[in-house]
């Protein structure tokens, strides 16, 4: 039953977007978000939408996957749009009891929805096209300067990649423990919330214990394979920025500039 | 340089118990063992005999509480040498799931060379070679958790081979595998010895696996109780029974026949040898 949880939202592929350096993609998402929050004109939003649309097309990510990822956000999107809809000032177009809708409210609501949807889709572009390992590696390299102020960058990255590595193993284990407890008469899907929570205890305790044992064995195995922290470590796949990476980053800066200009002229 | 790969002298070890009144019990008490370069040594013993504890001393995962361990002439207590010792003595563990560190097979195999600071083109060469050696090249970009137990163990072995160790300690590598995985692992051990002349130390309680070794060392209660060629060791059926170790079926058959007055040799290990000895015996009657 736990098998069908999708882990990490990565869709493997070989498109340009997939092959971009993870650092480029992380920085690009930051630039994209900055541009998105700068935009407040129809032209600006249109430009952002075109940029996002082209990126999605190039990455060959199915629109269906994008929309599926949006599902949990429907509530937030609807709520914020409603709030913005009724909080506009100016001449009301439509009044109902204490609610009044203004042109400004409508515009704001539309912008807000666009902003949230494009924000989420933009970040999906990062996680959908970058493997968790590459993402971790990219973050590690980007955070490298923080080592100077004694931030344990390598350790954090290693912990993150270990966690990613162990998720499928632990899910498998949870499945096994649940089956074992069920075989002994445990029931997980009956009773109220508190009863259900209590029923989780016989799963969590063995899972915890075995995780500690696993962690201990894994640490031993890592030591046996000469692991001694990040010092002097090399990598099998070294990341090097290519022309396409610099072009992408230039595009990101251009995007911000364009949106700023459009905002300036109110287009 | 002499021909010794690993040498332990009067090795003693105990785990600190935490309770002060009770003196900790020795897990290893006075183990002296000398392992020759290029040899294949099986270390046998029931659970708690100290065989895994001994194994962990061979690459400085544990340090002796008494006595010494010399690995290619290096004392394991010298912290400066720890990395070099671990590079030269690789170790494969029982549970493949708890040895793999990456979500991608080739990244996992690259882990040890990465730790050693080897330049990436050389890592690539070693990863390719190691994967070829264990016959897992086609799975290089797969996720390990989708592979079978035997395949995962082969990846773990490749991860050790990528260090180019001179000696590999296998700590019950087949205990969690199905017969197929078990056979694959044993074949890799054979290939390793044949092609690289690697010294192999196999910790096991499978007598059939130990039968392939040049030398069998039997441990009990932290001591070495038998040491010799597998044929000679296995012939001591009654003593092995008392230690809770099951001798191979072929040896058991000959032993039972002898107990019933049939004069056959006890030193036959393979089914073929056993059949030949029986045929000879009955034809000569």
Provide a short characterization of the protein structure.
With 267 residues, chain A is mainly alpha-helical.
Keywords:
heterodimer; A: 267 residues; mainly alpha; two-stranded antiparallel sheet; 10 helices; 2 strands; disordered N terminus; B: 285 residues; alpha/beta; Rossmann fold; 4-stranded antiparallel sheet; 38% helix
Structure summary, number of beta strands of chain A? 2
* Largest interface, Cβ cutoff 8 Å: A-B, 29 and 40 residues
Assembly category: heterodimer
Q: How many domain modules of chain A?
A: 2
User: Using only CA atoms, what is the Rg of chain A?
Assistant: 24 Å
Helix content of chain B: 25-40%
- Round the mean pLDDT of chain B to the nearest integer and report it: 90
Outline the biggest β-sheet of chain A: 2 strands, antiparallel
Q: Main sheet of chain B?
A: 6 strands, mixed
Question: What does the model show?
Answer:
The complex is a heterodimer of chains A (267) and B (285). Chain A has 267 residues and is mainly alpha-helical. Chain A folds into 2 domains: 16-145 and 239-264, no CATH class; 153-224, no CATH class. Chain A contains 10 helices and 2 strands; from the N terminus they run αααααββααααα. Chain A has a two-stranded antiparallel sheet with strand order 1-2. In chain A, helix 2 packs antiparallel against helix 6 (103-129) and helix 8 (153-183) crosses helix 9. Chain A is flat and about 70 Å long. Helix content of chain B is 38%, strand content 22%. Chain B is built from 12 helices and 10 strands. In chain B, the strands form 2 sheets. Chain B has a 6-stranded mixed beta sheet with strand order 6-7-8-3-9-10, sandwiched between helices. In chain B, helix 5 packs across helix 6 (149-161) and helix 6 (149-161) runs parallel beside helix 7 (179-196). Chain B is globular. In chain B, 46% of the residues are buried. The model of chain B has no long low-confidence stretch (mean pLDDT 90). The A-B interface holds A 131-133, 161-162, 164-165, 168-169, 172, 214, 217-218, 220-228, 232-238 and B 56, 59, 61, 83, 86-87, 90-91, 93, 95, 97-104, 106-107, 110-120, 123-124, 127, 143, 145, 156, 159-160, 163.
